[in-house]
User: What shape does this take?
Amino acid sequence: MAVQAQATEHINPYEVALRQYDRAVAYLDLPAGIKTFLRYPKRELSVNFPVRMDNGDIRMFSGYRVHHNTVLGPSKGGIRYAPRVDIDEVRALAMWMTWKCALVNLPYGGAKGGVVCDPYTMSQNELERLTRRYATEIILFISPHGDIPAPDMGTNAQTMAWIMDTYSMTVGYSVPAIVTGKPINVGGSQGRTEATGRGVIICMDEALRRGGHTNPSEIRVAIQGFGNVGTYAAKHAYDLGYKIIAISDVTGGYYNGKGLDIDDVMAYTRTSQHHQLAGYPNADPISNEELLALECDVLAPCALENQLTGDNAANIKAFLVVEGANGPTTPEADDILFSKGVEIIPDILANAGGVTVSYFEWVQGLQSFFWDVEEVNRQLRRVLIRAYDDVVQTRDQYEVDMRTAAQITAIKRVGDATRTRGIYP
Assistant: This one.
């Protein structure tokens, strides 16, 4: 799980996504109607459904599934289980998925889903019943050629297996390609679990290399969030020789100026309650705000939206921010960090590793032909470095920051495809 700054609760992520879009699309010579079209979600579904709890009570839950755009192909996006999920958060995440997929040249549009719940207070049986009922409610929205869900915060490979089984039982035959991020023994891909975190570090390493920083042991990295993304980002960076000086999750932050042993941290979380960092003995406890403001070289926010804001951006001391989370930086923080000379590798590039390997999994599932992990990682690096090159080229052409460059690149691809396809009818 991730740490959320208390001071940023009022920030609407969909408004942030729209402001980012408006900044970027202003550079493009697209018809006004297409610019407007790309601001809107294609379709939205809200559902309310009952789940029988272990004590026999029946409890109501609310969920969402949003398709932002399908011009480039079927929509793709994760499903989030969290207490504060709302429709605007899902809209924002779906829009960012559209740009993310376009940026790395995947034949997908963007989607996202969510259920308002706290998965860490529910039993495995309750989560299974909730997941199967939610899957049934959104089944008119999802299909292996129309909309392919994946894991996100609060969900995992087991969640995807339940959705796959529910869909397959409904249609009467097994459909592995209905979801990605599944366990390997039911059609998942090698390397998918680690892919988002690995991709964050591929982009970080590339940015540092281009900046002349070629000795990983000299680079101090602070990672906010130690869920799936933060854990595997920390692990890959650690294996490459980077010094991870701080990590955090919902229970708090932990700092060791000499560098954390990430293998030891991961071993601790595997045996701790809820797989969290609480009580980790080999580091000093720090607050979330202290972690964000640490003396470090790289800051990787791998938690929730709106972590770097106009209130705290001036305190950031890292010279490179690599966004493992979706939407962790507000436009006000972007402006402050840009004025300070801080480079930001934006979310739609830095955390695109997950959807990239999800695409590989989808293709493997459709073909029933599977790759080994070395091939998956080789192809992942190829896709991300190519996308990085595209963003740098756009940045230099338009003389903008990396986020705006990434969005210009992505929006142009979707906009051009819209013009080519035409407006039906």
